[in-house]
Amino acid sequence: MLNFLISPFWLLSLLPLCSAVPQRGRQRCTAVDTCWPSIDIWNEFNSSIAGRLIATRPSAAVCHAEDYDEVACSTAKQNWTVSDWRTEQPGAYTGMLWEYGPVAQCFINTTREAACQQGYVPRYSVNASSIDDIQQAIHFADEHDLLLAIKNTGHDHLGRSSGGDGLSIWTHHLKGMEWHDDFMPTNGPGNAQGYPAVTLQAGEQWIDVYGAAAKQQRIVVGGHARTVGAAGGWLTGGGHSAWSSKYGLGIDNVLEIEVVSAQGKHLILNEHTNPDYFWAIRGGGGCAWGVVTSVTYKTFPEPNHIQAVFVQVNTTGEAAFRRGLAGTLKGVDLMTAAGYTGYAYIQRPADATPEVPAGFGGFFNQADGNNETFATGTSAFMALNEIEGVSAFALPLQYPSWSVYTDLWLQDPNVAQNVIDASRLLTPAVVHDGAKLGALVDMMVDYGAGFNFIGRVKNDTRADTAVHPAWAESLGILSFGANWEDEATLEEKRQKKHMVVEQSKQLDEIFGSSGGTYINEANPFEPEWQRVFWGTRYEKLLKIKRKVDPTNLFVCNRCVGTDVVFEP
Ligand SMILES: Cc1cc2nc3c(=O)[nH]c(=O)nc-3n(C[C@H](O)[C@H](O)[C@H](O)COP(=O)(O)OP(=O)(O)OC[C@H]3O[C@@H](n4cnc5c(N)ncnc54)[C@H](O)[C@@H]3O)c2cc1C
Question: Residue 364: which pLDDT band, with cuts at 50, 70 and 90?
Answer without folding.
Answer: very high
